[in-house]
């Protein structure tokens, strides 16, 4: 992670960088405690003018596409289009930083009155339609694979993510099953090839005084099917309420000329949720030092449950509840150590902090400790149920459930297991994961699928 903005050397670098690139007379720096990339709000005074700047890492959290300059190139490619994006002022490739226009407004819609919130949400859908009306070949985009068939519009980027998961995280049958489902159910035709934003929707645009001022976060952009972005709207609406989704998609359809196709949108939503799940799996495997770690690491449980719920509904597979008995407190050294850390964070460390970033980091650590304590209560019961479930499904005993899940992934890819039987197991699996991750998920543990 980059130095904090209160590090003297880093602060001196930012002052010099702003003087060189923007002609700054004075520079004021404040860290931003949000998102998954280190960011700083910078006010540049130049004569009588105040230039608001945001400095961010160019490296996204996971480097799914491997090119740190990719997102910056996309911003610049869209600069003179109807899609509102921030201007890029400067890039420091050595430190992996980009300085961009800090547009007026916020990504939070909660403070708006209902009528204004609806109007802003509809305006975003029109901007997405404007994006999908652009000819990607006329934009100076970074190199991107170009889908040439209807199938590739649904699978080219998906396959990249599945390879990324295979290289960086343990086998996960939810990922394998959903990936195979998306391939089998890929649309037979595509209306047009577009620049897909990826991660589209609430939380990733800025509004000010009832108008959309910028669409942000383009690191997952690729060429593909426009309905992918509508699927991302569904996925992000699970975390950031976005009003009446039926209304949102009607507005998009009217602006884009494309039909309101629920099946295509749900295909895009399963794809989007799967990618978020993959990101969380990789964070679990790699570790991460960002305050957003608890949210990211719980993603596989949250989106895994919703992906399987969606696929079960589409297949008409019923699912009963899972019953898990917590292990009683044994007074072990590990339990005592976790209790000590929790008390120290909550009662001694947190009350003494004033720095927003340090407070966020300490709160994230506290949530993680509570998660580990939840594991002490339920991990043994979950492992036992998983082993027995997998033995019944595979017809052979597995001493470790992870080995059974790996074998199940192989059989799913080989199409040698009954789909509905696998879906029933996965329904129980994601319920157990939801229990295991309950302290990190909070109210998200019971978030239902959206309806539209």
General description of the model:
This protein has about 450 residues and is of the alpha+beta class. The chain folds into 3 domains: about 10-100, Phosphorylase Kinase, domain 1 (2-Layer Sandwich); about 115-285, Aminoglycoside 3'-phosphotransferase, Chain: A, domain 2; about 325-445, no CATH class. About 50% of the residues lie in helices and about 10% in strands. The strands form 3 sheets. A 5-stranded antiparallel sheet has the order 1-2-3-5-4, sandwiched between helices. It has a two-stranded antiparallel sheet with strand order 6-9. A hairpin with a 4-residue loop joins strand 4 (about 90) and strand 5. The longest helix is centred in the C-terminal third of the chain and has 39 residues, at about 355-395. It starts with 7 loop residues before the first helix and ends in an 11-residue tail after the last helix. Mean pLDDT is about 90; it is low at about 1-5. InterPro entries: ACAD10_11_N (IPR041726), AGP_Transferase (IPR051678), Aminoglycoside_PTrfase (IPR002575), Kinase-like_dom_sf (IPR011009). This is Aminoglycoside phosphotransferase domain-containing protein.
Summarize this, please?
With 452 residues, the protein is α+β, with helices and mostly antiparallel strands. It is built from 15 helices and 9 strands.
CATH-defined superfamily of the largest domain: Aminoglycoside phosphotransferase (APH), C-terminal lobe
CATH topology call of the largest domain = Aminoglycoside 3'-phosphotransferase, Chain: A, domain 2
- Taking Cα atoms only, what radius of gyration do you get, to the nearest Å? 23 Å
Spans where pLDDT lies below 50 across 5 or more residues: 1-5
How many structural units, i.e. domains?
Answer: 3
Mean pLDDT, to the nearest integer, reads: 92
Largest sheet features: 5 strands, antiparallel
Query: Terminal Cα separation, in Å?
Result: 40 Å
Helix content: 40-55%
The appropriate CATH architecture of the largest domain is Alpha-Beta Complex
